[in-house]
Amino acid sequence: MIKSKTMNLFKALLLPEKNAKKIGFFRLVCASVGGLCVAYLGMSLCVALLPVKAGEAIVIALLFNTLIWAVCAVWISVAPTRLHALLRAVLPSVVFAFLLSFFFFHKGS
Amino acid sequence: MHQKKALIQRLMGVHSLVGVGITLFMYVAVFFGIFAILLPFIQVWEKPSRHFAMPSNLQDVNYGAMIDSVLLDPTYPQINGIKIFLPGAMLDPALRISTQFVPTKVFNPNTLQEVQNEAESSQLASFLNGMHYGRPFKLFGFILFGLVAVAAMFLIVSGLWLVQKVHYSNSSKTLFAFYLKGHRKIFTWLFVPFIIITLTGALMNIGYSASSPMSYLVSKGETSETWKLVGPVLFPTQKRIQKAHEPAPMLSINALLSQARVHMPEVNVHTLTLFNWGDKSAYVKVEGYNPTMPFLNGISNLPSVTLSGVDATLIAQHEVLDKHWSGLFYDAIFFLHFLFGVDGLTRFVMVIIMLLSLVALGCGMLFYLEKQSKSFESEIPYHWLGRLSLSVMVGVIPAVALLFFLQWLFPFEMEGRFFWQKSAFSLFWIATLTWSFYRLESYRVAKEFLMLGGVLFFLTPLVHMYNSGFSPSQLWNERMFLILGVDSVLALLGVLLLGVARALPQNKEAMHFLLKRIFK
Fold it and tell me: What residues in A contact B13, CB-CB < 8 Å?
């Protein structure tokens, strides 16, 4: 019962909207919140991985964070279907968060 | 093929949705940003205490006479550094002395006498600057304007993508095609400065306040205070020299300044900071701006020398390229936004760019509204968004004109002077909204707003002349060119607005005809 309901939801999200010009609430939330997560986690990862001290790179990362947010939001909001939009928001965030947590709990320098 | 079409349609949809949502805020930010670019000029013009000429030779001014009179006062707090802004810093002709806990002292370097600083009662320039980034609404305003900056970058990215994907025809058959053309053409030319400015604006309004999680993550949980990570890199602390408690005679400020010029001849010195003054361990930090290296210094990076107050020996020197690379990058990006230390011409060019951006923003909104008006039912005479835009975009002109007009109309001794001034401004701006809903013909409303703004801007220099007691010839003869310049620009602006109000057509058809004639 629950399974079929979720399947129906997925199917609904997989169908492209009839009027592509109308941007729904779902896409907007994915774009704004998801875009922020992708950009923020991505930039944090950049600072963590760059071979310079955190204090040297963090200002530049914070500066470009907003631009990357905007770029990600455009990219997410024009996804072919709503499910794609959701995946574009969630997948990179999860990957970045996973890599970051690996870095965060990694002992030693 | 179908996919590509759907992509373009989605891009258009999201661009217009976000665009309509934030254009009015963006317009307010850019409109007041123009006054922020002109802040140094307005700051001098608005204050009676600054109505004197800039000393013709800054090296010959007897700085010691002014500064010593303050330092000799035993009640003046001297524990922390005493900051001295030389005449010419931000185009201010006065010398300013300030330290923590006491009001700033202001001197006229021509007469060496102290003048009465207006402080709280004259805040025109700083208010206009605050409106640029939402300061009157405190935290809410900062966050709102920060998000608007992010949304503006969203619009730039999606707009550029659209321009690259879609082959636009430059038709001028309809009025909205004209507006679309204007919006597209101007922003494809101006997006580069615009993106840098929104980027830095977003960082200042929301970037820093949202930085603690990132600091926590990248420092592996050590700290969530970004400043602890950034401070040592961007601003390595200079070691403070302890006071020796042995009184010693000091060199004169002029001698120290000329010694500082020997060490850094290409730097325009604007600030001195005195430490332990009158003691054997006294030293002074001389800071300035190096105009031969624009984009690399001026904001967080100030070239400086630190000299001993007793014998002017060099204690430390900081040159432009001594800064850490991330600091240089920071200054390069922020330079276009802050315009510290740049000359009048660069400011003028930025004003032109921003005026064009205002036109482009207006065109974008008008394009949307014209498109909407096609689907109107005949019994609805107007669209609420159109009237709101009319009030925000055109109504702001007479409202700001009123702000300028009241600056010299109210007496400077008036109680709560600035409160009344900004309240009148806000009330007037809201009243324009009422008026634009009351009148049916929006073109007529625009004409009236422009006319009123023109009259108020034109009257402002007259009120200034009458109440300050300086006629144009006096201003010219006493070499207060900056103040005379502001007066003439205000009068010209008034005439220009009156001209535009006269030339503006009465209705849509006439507007289309006029645009066709101009841009054919």
Answer: 20-23
H-type helices in B203-284, by residue range?
A: 212-218, 226-234, 253-263
CB B117 within 8 A of CB B111: no
Local confidence band at A1 (pLDDT 50, 70, 90 cut-offs): low
Selected residues 218-247 of chain B with any CB under 8 Å from a CB in chain A: 218-221, 226, 229-234
Residue indicated by tokens 């009179």: B69
According to DSSP, residue B96 is labeled: E
The predicted-structure confidence for A49-105, as pLDDT tens digits, reads as follows 888 887 888 888 988 999 999 999 999 999 999 999 999 999 999 999 999 998 888
Q: Which residue has the higher pLDDT, A19 or B287?
A: B287
Residue B387: alpha-carbon gap to chain centroid = 28
Distances (CA, A) of B37 to B135, B340, B342, B497: 16, 10, 11, 20
Question: Which of A16, A70, A103 lies nearest to residue B154, judging by beta carbons?
Answer: A70
In this prediction the ipTM stands at 0.93
Q: Are strands B95-98 and B82-85 parallel, antiparallel or unpaired?
A: antiparallel
Pick from A49, A66, A78, A104 the residue to mutate for testing the B interface (most B CBs within 10 Å): A66
Of A19, A45, A30, A33, whose CA–CA distance to A101 is shortest?
A: A45
Q: Which residues of chain B have pLDDT under 70?
A: 1, 375-381, 520
Q: Do B215 and A58 touch (CB under 8 A)?
A: yes
Chain B hits for A28, Cβ within 8 Å: 17
Measuring CA to CA, which residue among B384, B519, B402, B409 is closest to residue B464? B409
Q: Residue B229 and residue A54: Cβ atoms within 8 Å?
A: yes
Helix (H) or strand (E) holding A76: helix A54-77
- How far apart, in whole angstroms, are the C-alpha atoms of residue B59 and residue B336? 30
C-alpha to C-alpha distance for B367 and B385, rounded to whole angstroms? 13
Residues of A contacting chain B (CB within 8 angstroms): 16, 20-23, 27-28, 31, 40, 43-44, 47-48, 53-67, 69-71, 73-74, 77-78, 80, 100, 103-104
A30 or B4, higher pLDDT: A30
Give the amino acid at B112: L
